[in-house]
Input
Amino acid sequence: MGATVPESVFTRGARGSEFGPGAADEVGFDLARLGARRALVVTDAGVAATGAPQRATGLLVPGAERPDGPAEHLPAAIERLMRDLGLPDGIGGVGCAEGDVPAPAAGTVRQQRLPATAPRPVTGDDVAGTCARSPSPW
Output
C-alpha cells in the first residue's frame, strides 16, 4: 500500500446561495439580518434592461434612486456615499499631494484597459486633469 494521506477539513463560513423563483424577495431580509443599513447596487444598461436591479433596489429601499442615462451617475452616487460615510475626499485624504500627480497620470495613460473601457477617447490631458483634481474633489 502507498503512503497514507491525512484527512483535511475545510470549513466554509460563507452563507449558502439561494436559487429559484422568489429568491430575490429575500434580499432585504438577508441584508437586515447581516446588519446592513445601506447598499450600493451597481449595474450596466444591459443588466438594467432585464429589470432585475430595479426589482432588487425596490426590495432594499422602496423609492431608491434608479438613475437612467450617462455613466456620470455612478461617480456621483459613489461621491454621495463617500460623503455620507465620512470617507476621505480623494487621494489627498490618504496623503497624496498635487506634486504626486504626474507619475500616476503617466502610468494611467499607458494602461491598455483605459482606451478599451472608457466611454469616449481619453487623452493624456484628460488623465492629467482628473489626477490634478483628485487630491480633493469636494
Observations:
- The mean pLDDT is 73.
